[in-house]
Structures are given as C-alpha cells and as structure tokens.
Amino acid sequence: MTNHALPSYLNADDLGPWGQYLQQIDRVTPHLGSLSRWVETLKRPKRILTVDVPIERDDGTIAHFEGYRVQHNMSRGPGKGGVRFHQDVTLSEVMALSAWMTVKNAAVNVPYGGAKGGIRVDPKTLSRGELQRLTRRYTSEISLIIGPTKDIPAPDVNTNEQVMAWMMDSYAMIEGNLSTGVVTGKPISLGGSLGRREATGRGVFVVGREAAAKRGVSIAGARVAVQGFGNVGGVAATMFAEAGSKIVAVQDHTGTVVHQGGLDVALLHKHVAEAGGVKGFPGAEAFLDRDAFWGIESDILIPAALEQQITAANAPRIRTKIILEGANGPTTPEADDILNDKDILIVPDVLANAGGVTVSYFEWVQDFSSFFWSEEEINARLTRIMQDAFSAVWDVAQEKKVSLRTATFILACTRVLQAREVRGLYP
What are the residue numbers of the active site? Predict the structure, then answer.
C-alpha cells in the first residue's frame, strides 16, 4: 500500500478497515485525471466526533460506552449513514464505513455525503430500558452535528426502527420541535417509508439479476449461498428463492446450514425467529463449521454479514460465478485480486447494497414534503436507480478494463471530486 500521511489517532501497524479503504482509493487514483489533485480529500474524514455515553444500569450502577459519529465528505450534500451497536466497533471501522457511504451515495447519484456512527456495546447485554437510555444519551451527545440538512442517521448492525424512533424523539426534545427527517429507517407511523426495511436486500437482488444476465447465469435454478440472514441476507434470500433460485447454504453467527436441493427460506425465517439463528434448522441436510461455508459450490455468493469476511486465506476455496456484497467491506483487497484472477464477478458493496440508502433518500424526501408514495412506486423507483447505476458502472468497467469495484470508485469519486473542485476551498 502507498505510504499515507496518517492521523495521530490511528495505529499505522494495524489500520483495520480504514486501511482497506485507503488501498481502494490508491487503485482508483490513476483513473481520476486532473481531479487527482483533490484525492487527499478522500483520505481524510471531514469531521470525527468521539463521545462518552454514560447510562444508569437497571441495578443502579453507572456504565460508560464509547461512541462515534464520523462525517467523511459532504461536498455533494448532508451526511448520510447508519449507526451500529456492536462490541467490536472501532474508530477505524466507523471511518471506513463513512467513506464507503460517500462512495455509495455518489455511485447511485443521491445528493448525500458519507457519514457513519457507532457505539462499542453488545446490545444483547442491555435491557430494553438500558438500550433506550443508551440511544437517547448518544443522540444528545452527537446532536451538535446531526440534523435533517446536516447529517441523517439510519439503522445499521443491531439497530432498527425502534432505535431510530428514540433518536428522532430525543432530537425533537433537544431542538424543541419535531423534525421527522433527522433520521431514516423509522417506523411508518413516524414518517418512515414503505419498502425501507426490505430495500437493501431488494437492491442486492436487483443488481444480482443484472450481473447474472451479463454473465449468462439464469436466476431460475441458480444456486445461491448467503452469509448473514438478517435484514439484508434474509431479504435477498427470499427474493432469489421467489425468483426460482435454490438457496443451497446459509451461514449466520450460530452456524451453517446446507441443502443442495434448496433450503425452504420461509421455514428458515420462522426457525431463526424462534431459535435466534439458523443452527439446528430441521430442513437442512447438513450442518457445517464456519470455514467450510466458503468451499460450498454456488452460482451466486452473497456475503451479507460484517466486513473482512473474504480474505486471502479463504478466497482460493471459493467456487462461485458471482459475488454480491450485501455487507460493507466483506472482501479484503488481497482477496479481491485472487477472486478476479479466478474470473469471479464481484458486484461491490458500494453498489450492491446501495438500495437501503436509496430508499432512505426517498424517505427523507417524503418527510420534507409530507407526501408519501405507495410501496409499488418506491420499489419501481429503487429498481430503476439500481439498474441505471449498475449499467453505468458496467460501462466504465468495460471501457477502462477494470473490476466493477474500481469502476464504481471511478464513477463515484469523480462525482465527489468534481463537486469539491467546483465548490473550491473556504476561505
């Protein structure tokens, strides 16, 4: 990797996900032409807020948690990005996620910059009351920099509609007025959008269908393996199954279930709701260990869990034709090269999972106008935007003879840096 002028708060020996992002920027820089003079803008978040989040536990003790909100780049509009609650959240991770949001928003051409937030906490260890207090205190701490025209949070790992409702209400108490557009991914009753919950998974399916057509893979009968069976992987699996694909393997944090004839996705959803994971699903014909998942033969592989899942260690074992990155940053740059050498088509996260932020954009627009669209309208608009974005990225990849990931970065970074250049520097 190119030597970078690193900020003092990062460990040069272990850059984590931020290092992965920097490598991706290095790969796109030669394709940016005269705009490359601005490329350092992309290597430095605009604003980083680190906060202490103290709460009173149910037993009367005081607990402190580490929270972040990172605004990477806002040249094209207000910050946009989720908030995750996870015990392994780090500043490097939130920085990288905010940067990928910058690229993602520009790739599908919605008028947002990139932002992300997180708290270092295992939410399973908190009661509902403690979770609410944590959310509200975190919101108050970051309220200085969020707002419907400044930075708009959304759900991410271990956060949901309820968390967004608490964030919206907390912001309303602080500001003294209700502003429904301060967050997206809210309950429908509070200005949420129809189709938002399924949007990321639907977007994965739409670009998967486009990629399959380019590769001559028929969706009907295609063998699909999915890592992660939550809001992204679970929805994508359902849509592929409804289109006639066979979901041959699913892995989550509890285990891996396999059925070469195709798992019954509807029954698997019921099992997960009752058991808390896929482990022990009676409709499986085999249960494998974690690493064995990557050796399962498929036509389409969907990593939809966390970042850095596909590495140089397991990439050589992967046997598939198309990878749809439902998660953020699931493939390391070293693994990228191995998979590209194997002629596996990778639809990158910054394109494949952009359905969620696209419908978040629709929600934000609906909140401002107080005029709400039907689910059919939303799904149709989402499909068109995802198809157009895939087509534009595919054309750049063919013209430049680069991977879809590099092509997406070329398209997105060009848009971001054009905005940066025409706006100029202040003062």
Answer: 116
